[in-house]
């Protein structure tokens, strides 16, 4: 590689920072490739690993498309990846000639266990430090007044600024590392601070994998190597795939890849798995037979739990598997109580806002079918937006509670009416009030009042 190319790479590394990157730690070349892969040079940019796959059913954790993984393989680095995510902030300039500023942590903040422990003297996180959710990575402050003109905006006291520190929000309970810090300025003169946070992840239950034939599946369980089946030669599979994934999908190419990969390991050659034009199955079978394997790629396997031979021959060999970016750590979400929307007082929506799990129309239909009325009441009202409203039994309109006298009163009735308390969803009460604003008058008729 020439000096010019090296210089370009160095320049790009200095001036570019991707928002999100997934890097496989130990990429490999595929043993079975195609002419197209060679033409575009994809075999030199490895995106997966050659996993030893056994096509068999194991323990029920591989139902549908789930796969069973070997813990020893994961310990050795199979499927391990690094996630690099960019966090940053902008130092804004305001119309009254004030601007944000980055300040070093105070003596009280700079303790070894506080939120500001990562910060250097410049107020930005140090490279190589471990960062956990809640840690401050840029100690930014913003001016309290950004509109009115000031006599000397540059010489304002510290009390004029309010803290707007940027804190790290990552997966709960996980520690990451500050990989890189970059200070840049845009063409408009805006100063930017960017922090690249690095997280090394090993595969866990719920992570998604796929071969190059669209046979995607999540990890159903991780099994100790001692409990997995092994062949006569002592080879143990890295992952187990359910055979029911083949008949309906008709991915014959995956079977040919498994055979070709097994033969390629024996004669030390890369095989071609191009449809209708690669290495023929006959030639692959000859290589397998010459090396003491069955022509159809099946092996006699011993059960790892009992030690007895399995009653069927198992189709086993290497297949190029890729780790997909869908990881359970990024998607896992649950909550008991949490934030609510101001308007409807219902739980917020979405994982990013710590939202609730929605019980939709179709789930409601199932509960109606079972007659689970109290469960519907709990999910749709008590756990959502239960509200105690005052309803007038004379006119049927919403009343109010007078905190001065402690009485429930009706605005419409002259004598204050006879008002009863009623529990109903807050969104329902909101609907009644919005209808009243449009001159539609909903009246509630109470039977037990």
Taken as a percent bin, the fraction of beta residues is 25-35%
Please tell me what the overall shape is: flat
Low-confidence spans: pLDDT under 50, at least 5 residues? 1-14
Amino- and carboxy-terminal Cα gap: 87 Å
Number of strands: 25
Structure description:
The structure is a single chain. The protein has helices at residues 3-15, 35-40, 71-75, 252-267, 281-290, 328-331, 361-370, 373-382, 426-437; strands at residues 20-24, 32-33, 49-55, 67-70, 81-91, 101-102, 130-131, 136-138, 140-143, 161-163, 166-167, 176-185, 191-201, 208-211, 216-223, 230-231, 239-241, 271-272, 298-299, 301-302, 314-323, 386-392, 400-402, 407-409, 419-425. The chain is built from 9 helices and 25 strands. The longest helix is centred in the middle third of the chain and has 16 residues, at 252-267. The strands form 8 sheets. The protein has a 6-stranded mixed β-barrel. A 5-stranded antiparallel β-sheet has the order 1-5-13-12-7, with no helix packed on it. A 3-stranded antiparallel β-sheet has the order 6-9-10, with no helix packed on it. By secondary structure, the protein is an alpha+beta fold. It has 2 domains: 3-80 and 204-323, Dna-directed Rna Polymerase Ii 140kd Polypeptide, Chain: B, Domain 6; 82-201, RNA polymerase II, Rpb2 subunit, wall domain (OB fold (Dihydrolipoamide Acetyltransferase, E2P)). It starts with a helix and ends in a 12-residue tail after the last helix. Strand 23 and strand 24 form a beta hairpin. It is flat and about 100 Å long.
């Amino acid at each position: 590689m020439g000096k010019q190319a090296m210089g370009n790479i160095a320049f790009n590394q200095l001036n570019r920072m991707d928002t999100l990157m997934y890097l496989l730690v130990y990429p490999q070349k595929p043993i079975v490739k195609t002419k197209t892969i060679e033409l575009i040079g994809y075999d030199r940019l490895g995106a997966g690993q050659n996993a030893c796959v056994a096509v068999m059913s194991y323990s029920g954790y591989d139902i549908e498309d789930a796969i069973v993984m070997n813990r020893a393989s994961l310990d050795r680095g199979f499927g391990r990846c690094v996630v690099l995510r960019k966090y940053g902030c902008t130092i804004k300039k305001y119309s009254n000639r004030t601007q944000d500023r980055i300040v070093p942590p105070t003596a009280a903040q700079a303790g070894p266990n506080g939120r500001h422990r990562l910060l250097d003297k410049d107020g930005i996180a140090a490279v190589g430090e471990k960062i956990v959710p809640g840690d401050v990575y840029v100690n930014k402050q913003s001016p309290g007044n950004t509109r009115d003109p000031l006599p000397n905006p540059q010489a304002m006291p510290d009390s004029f600024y309010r803290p707007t520190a940027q804190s790290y929000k990552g997966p709960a309970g996980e520690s990451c590392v500050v990989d890189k810090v970059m200070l840049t300025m845009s063409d408009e003169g805006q100063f930017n601070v960017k922090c690249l946070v690095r997280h090394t992840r090993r595969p866990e239950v719920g992570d998604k994998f796929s071969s190059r034939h669209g046979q995607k599946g999540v990890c159903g369980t991780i099994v100790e190597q001692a409990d997995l089946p092994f062949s006569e030669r002592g080879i143990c599979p890295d992952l187990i795939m359910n055979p029911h994934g083949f008949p309906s999908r008709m991915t014959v190419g995956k079977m040919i890849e498994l055979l070709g990969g097994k033969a390629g390991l024996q004669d030390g050659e890369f095989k071609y798995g191009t449809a209708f034009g690669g290495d023929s199955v006959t030639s692959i079978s000859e290589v397998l037979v010459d090396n003491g394997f069955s022509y159809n790629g099946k092996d006699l396997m011993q059960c790892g739990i009992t030690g007895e031979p399995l009653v069927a021959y198992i189709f086993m060999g290497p297949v190029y598997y890729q780790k997909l970016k869908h990881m359970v750590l990024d998607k896992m979400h649950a909550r008991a109580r949490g934030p609510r929307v101001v308007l409807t007082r219902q739980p917020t929506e979405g994982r990013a806002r710590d939202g609730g799990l929605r019980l939709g129309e179709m789930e409601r239909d199932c509960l109606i079918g079972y007659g689970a009325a109290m469960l519907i009441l709990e999910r749709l009202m008590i756990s959502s937006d239960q509200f105690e409203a005052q309803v007038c039994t004379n006119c049927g309109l919403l009343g109010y509670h007078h905190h001065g006298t402690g009485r429930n009163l009706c605005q419409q009735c002259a004598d204050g009416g006879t008002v009863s308390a009623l529990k109903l969803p807050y969104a329902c009460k909101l609907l009644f009030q919005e209808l009243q604003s449009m001159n539609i008058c909903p009246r509630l008729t109470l039977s037990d009042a």
